[in-house]
């Protein structure tokens, strides 16, 4: 879930060396799952050509190798792993197509990097889902790396270039597109009895929530850029702020039917709660400034009510942020960044000044309905997940007739020797 400084190496239960990290989160990555070593050769021997089996096994082994230390990699390591997944996907798709009749021939194993939880299922569609899901998580992870540079000294101000922020938006849209495809095009291919064995983070509602969360964080970046642009009008900033509220609220709603009792679900819920409060605080702030431009006393009263709500939400969001960071797996308390970097000072200051100016109007109308908090305006949502489509199935499958391959006795004995040597 992001990137942070490492502390001493420890050993996982499987004897692997693994660094413990207290990570920092700008873009939330619910979990990164990696493929485990899987026997592909024996289940497929005699069913497809040795060339196909060897290629499938080699490409998957490359993904396994690159995945192990991804938490401690940089953006170039993420790109290398993404390329390996893109190279592997076209060939594993051949196992999933109905014509091959090989969908349940191999037991594929994946585990979470945070806690080594394994899920092993004999389903090529499970493997395909896991690959595309990993692509999405890596895109979120890459976005987080871009927003939390490693070469910044403690205590010094972080500066992320405008180009880097645009790259973050591209990564977030790509992640959202992959997850949206998982929900609408891959899950529907998987039998219900297989989905019952899925870990919680592969639930439809959770995948959908993370897809929408990625869109919300795109708007968060866009709003930060707009706040730094002199040409961006107050109305544009308010619209972006209100869109951000809608996206985070939708993401939170998607989890309502999900099992969120494990650490991943709880952490995601806490993150969305925190970000919803941040988003509402900013939206009420900008809505207050727009209302204050009106000439009627009612406009000023409503403006002060919005600013008061923004100030209260800001205080609640700080507590929600702490709750998120303390929930397992523990993450660092991040410094305010983007739009929130200025809002932590602006909202209390402007709320105080406006109360000083218009306090007499509030006193005069203290029993009036004018002092009720106005609703935030609703706007059509402008962002959609980036379009994602499966690649074309690898051409090596074109000559597979799905009939048992005839091997000579010499070839069969040679294969047995190779298997024995690997054990």
In terms of topology, how is this protein built?
Layout: E1 6-11, E2 17-21, E3 33-35, H1 41-44, H2 50-67, H3 75-96, E4 108-112, E5 118-121, H4 124-147, H5 162-186, H6 192-195, H7 204-227, H8 234-254, H9 263-292, H10 297-326, H11 339-364, H12 409-422
Antiparallel strand pairs: 1-2, 3-4, 4-5
Family: Belongs to the BROX family.
Domain BRO1: 5-423
Protein name: BRO1 domain-containing protein
The N- and C-terminal alpha carbons lie at a distance of 35 Å
Largest sheet report:
3 strands, antiparallel
Structural class comes to mainly alpha
According to CATH, what is the topology of the domain at 1-196?
Serine Threonine Protein Phosphatase 5, Tetratricopeptide repeat
Total DSSP E strands: 5
Kindly provide the name of the CATH class of the domain at 1-196.
Answer: Mainly Alpha
Please, what is the CATH homologous superfamily of the domain at 1-196?
Answer: alix/aip1 like domains
Mean pLDDT: 87
Going across the biggest sheet, name each strand in turn. 3-4-5
What is the correct CATH architecture of the domain at 1-196? Alpha Horseshoe
The stretches of 5 or more residues where confidence is low (pLDDT under 50) are: 1-15, 402-409
